[in-house]
Amino acid sequence: MMSLLFAIALNCVFVTSQIAAEENGVVSYEGFQLWKIKPNSEGDRQFILDIKDEYELELWNERRLARDPMDVLVPPQSQTGLKFKLAEHKISYVVVISNLQTAIDNQKTNVNRTTSNSKAAYNMDWISYHRLIDIYNFMTYLNTTYPKLVQLTQIGTSYEKRPLYVLRISNSSSPGTRPAIWIDGGFHAREWISPAVATYIIQQLVEVPANAKLSANVDWYIMPVVNPDGYEYTHTTNRMWRKTRSVSSTSTCRGVDPNRNFGYMWGGMGASTNPCDETYRGPKAFSEPETLATSNFITGKSSQIKLYLTLHSYGQYALVPYGYDVVYPSDYNELLALANAAASKFVKYRYTVGNSADLLYAAAGGSDDWAKSIGIKYSYTFELPDTGANGFTLPPSAILPVCQDFFPALDVFATKVATCCGAAATTTAKSLTTTRPATTTKPKPTTTTTKRTTTKCPCTCG
């Protein structure tokens, strides 16, 4: 009983200190550590999950297999107790980040700097992380400078009334008639590498003539920041914020996990009903203006969009639906083949390819499952680098290597969509609706290095 009362008191102190820090300005993560805990069995894994609340632990990255390591953020006041607890159960761990605040400070080194090139037309580069205003000004500049190639569309506003922007890249004389690829980033606010890669893709497609071939037969819709309120909040107040910034009518805790808020299998496994949890699903599907606007726009283009690609971090995974449970769509092997072909283009970073619920954990209400459910055949989540050495605090020096390593995979996607889906560009979304029977044999995930593969045509897109 005493231990329970102590745990409750400790939790109250921790929560109070966090709220006070937010009220007074920027949340500090001084002394917080990221531990990579290595369970020896499923029992060990469950034990860590059972003590998570008692020790105020936050799981940063979790995989499904019993002996896979678990990345756990440990607050200063819990470190001594947790160390002894793990020792009692003979569970090993290593400290990956010894002081999270130091890692955050290092990541922010160049965030607000002014570009050293006075001739630059915009304040964007890929050697530093940028605020939302830089990203939006960059998109506006491209729209103004390349009007025949670029169209900037505001598809709605966020909870805090920030614009939600999508950039279309098309060199077609009749935009909207060709097959298209959708790319989004910035779902989870703290995953800074995601908008960085999305904006790099935009810059390469628009401003590098050698990449014009990627738009020869395919249109692109790119939304670098789906969750602008959360993204700005990570820059101004709490670097580790994940959710939106909406206010709950039932709790003082703010925000919804936008990647648990989409209306396909909403409310299932891996989606919390607690507004204070990082994976809170929201009061209803599409409760967030960000997810509603995004889904409405994609639905309106679903007869054109043939491939949906959402960028997250971290872990280096190419994930294939479904994510709400270990269930495989009837065309899973075809989706897997294309994901492997794309991942084979990566040279610097190795990506593991497979079903998301099988490799990681069930997460109902995800945007990739929803995209697949409305008839977008090829739907993927890519978890960008790294595998845990830096977690969400990937240093600025890694931005360009990650972007440059990822970009060649787009050629695989564009070729597939153009050659296999071109004839089906005007097919109605209704006719593209897919079924989701489970396969009788569980496919195996793969880890891809530099092996080159090809994707054969013809294929079916719906």
UniProtKB/TrEMBL annotation:
| Gene3D superfamilies for the chain | Metallocarboxypeptidase-like (3.30.70.340), Zn peptidases (3.40.630.10)
> GO cellular component terms?
extracellular space
Q: Any signal peptide, and if so, which residues? A: 1-21
Keyword Metal-binding appears in the UniProt entry: yes
Which cofactors is this protein said to need?
Answer: Zn(2+)
Q: Where is this region: Disordered?
A: 432-453
Give any GO molecular function from the UniProt entry. Answer: zinc ion binding
GO process annotations (BP): proteolysis
InterPro entries, per this entry?
CARBOXYPEPT_ZN_1, M14A-like_propep, M14A_act_pep, Peptidase_M14
- Catalytic residue list: 383
Q: Which UniProt keywords apply?
A: Carboxypeptidase, Disulfide bond, Hydrolase, Metal-binding, Metalloprotease, Protease, Signal, Zinc
Q: Which PROSITE patterns match?
A: CARBOXYPEPT_ZN_1, PEPTIDASE_M14
Domain spans labelled Peptidase M14: 128-417
Family affiliation: Belongs to the peptidase M14 family.
Name of this protein = Peptidase M14 domain-containing protein
